[in-house]
Amino acid sequence: MNKILTFSLCTLLSQLVVAQHVPERMHFESNGRRLVTGNIPSTGFYNQSTVETVELTFTQANYWTLLTNNYATKTDLPATLTYKGKSYPNVGVRFRGNTSYQRVTSQKKSFSIKMDYLDPLQDLKGYQTLHFNNAFEDPSMMHEVLYLDYNRRHIPAAKGNYIHLKINGQSFGVYPNVQVLNKEFFGEWFLNNDGTRWRGEKSSGAGGGGFGAGTCTLNNLGLDTNSYKPNYTLKATSKARPWDDLVKACATMGTLPAATIEDSLKKVFDTDRALWFVAHEIMFGDDDSYIEKGGMDYYVYWDSASRRITPIEYDGNTALGSLATSASWSPFYKETNPSFPIPNKLLAVPALRQRYLAHVRTMLEQNLSVDTINQKVNYFYNMIDSLVTPATIRNNTNAEFVAAKTAVTNFLNSRRSVYSTNTEVNRPYPAISNVIYKASATDFSTPTASQVCNVKANITFAAGIQRVNLYYGIGFDGYFDKTQMFDDGQHQDGAANDGVFGGSIPAFARGTYVRFYVEAVANDGNGTVAYMPKGAEHDVYIYQVKMNVSSITSVTVNEIMASNVFTAADPAGEFDDWIELHNKTASAVDLSGFFLSDDPANRDKWKFPVGTTIHANGYLIIWADEDGTQQGLHANFKLTSSGESVIFSDRDTNVIDEVVYYQQVTDKGFARRPNGTGAFVIQQPTFAVSNEWVGTGELTLEEVRLYPNPTANGATLELPANQTVSLQIVNLLGQPVYQASVSGKTFIDTNHWLSGTYIVKIGNLVKKLVIY
After folding, report:
1. What is the pTM of this model?
2. What is the pLDDT of residues 367-393, one digit of tens each?
3. To the nearest 5 percent, what fractions of the chain are helix, strand and coil?
4. CB proximity list for 252: less than 8 A, separation 6 or greater
């Protein structure tokens, strides 16, 4: 029998998460002082602003019979998928779903698509598995897409939009296109994607009816891992003993007394995110969920970075009123039922109950105003109306579709009424404003490794303030510690009793990122709390402890591109992210043994090879693609478009330059203006040339000729008539060898160039030129 012999709550590793890549759904606000997880519009294949057509083409005349015969064995049938004019051959297609398949008599089935069915490298906009859902029992077609849209503001939830599905030329109408909860999903929300994930369902009860209230709802089943295995389906893990983490979290929640659970549970279980999780399920009436059936349609994730368990939302097609009684659910639904320990155990702790109520008030304000309800429902309805109305393959009539829109609106208005009239929800709460941190006399100045960081905030409440807490944690994720803030004139708070509270965050090592938020507890007899930012703990303030600075100032990080689709190709022809250095002096600089990194705590992550030189007044390109086997300079890390940092250090790892950037725009440069010295701005890229020299001209590949290619003595560039563009040519190190403003025909003399491959930037286009 597998038993957990020790039950240590020591989570030192969770406190060592510093300065890694921020995932896609985590981003810095534009001033760099807030770190927000969620609340980002989905782009690419899950863009919610348009409905794109996806066509499946089967070569088998009896493909429908084959799909039907394959359902029970989940065997894929090969097809070609076409999206936005591009064909993807040999994808695997099968029907999916249980009741949504068995009870549907029309051809409006749900589909699972494997892009990598025969080609392991094939994906669609970065995704290898796709789910097109038939919105079973949802005549509005909006429940899942709308519910997930609400969720992603505060908790990890799948992306969802609409596609127009065609099969062998026949329209199958509109489908909710819902992201799969696989490694790609967890990599978008968490610092690592190699954690353990379970589906909260009885592993012996799949196929309907395998609900597990009291067993697979994070219940304490003891310390024997074998008690948990029949009640959860293990989906993926990279650990030899993954069940120990689930047991530890469940046993901690189930055994600790209310007096100690707040401080102890957070180290193994993401308590705050769990409160947001159940708040969403209850508010939006998710009846196929953790909170209603106790399993099947939620996931459990152990995050390897924070080393904590968290519940994850899954499958919202029956939210928003599918169950008639969910419109009247109390905000504290299931709190008295011990089979549901998140509401039952956590809401029994006064401090956690008040935290939950603060989150509920934030959701009520943001989601359930009359204007917000009407705006969201009308947006999605109008997006799909023109596709639903003429559809012939369908599960509901047009009359039912129109009526369902009204039903969704009425449901959300009912939820607003329930919450706004609840006596615990409808309480006044403290107002927090003007939150400032500083390590010196200057507001928002950051500390050195030996300095504390002082935080102050204006806080008011008619009945007075009982206590103010300052929560802080290091890195981009993990649990928070807390310290008290005071209005006594002795904590960098100004005068005593002036409504300004002050507190200090202790000193941390250089380069450490520190997150924090403020909690105000009202002196109202209830301990009503408020947070700033209101979205804490997934929306927090952040700063970075200063690092040792190098005396070298001659070379700077001049431009980066963290989302390169067609701007510049590396020597292998791949459009990878890149970093540009610029030598601001009239002498060459030897960079041998210098370092680049995306991690302030690991500044020697990538070392420049011996012999690397940047020419006088020159530029040097480093590809951030983790592929050191290719020609040129290739760092052993990648950039993320949602924001992180790039650190350039000398041989002693003293920082020469650091760039902290935020959400980037595809094929735009993040560049210093003025060149080499100024602040960073997003602009047209200026690959390996001055940032003042922005190319112009929009061309297509068909309009431009570069010949002969390969060549020995020279090449001719031929442009359309009356077209003038910028031309720049760089070698494999990103060093410019030719640049000009050109039009018509231009001869480029290459007699004195070294043999090799050169990158030619012609206005907005990129070509290769090979010299032999």
Report:
1. 0.79
2. 999 999 999 999 999 999 999 989 899
3. 20, 30, 50
4. 9, 261, 264, 265, 268, 269
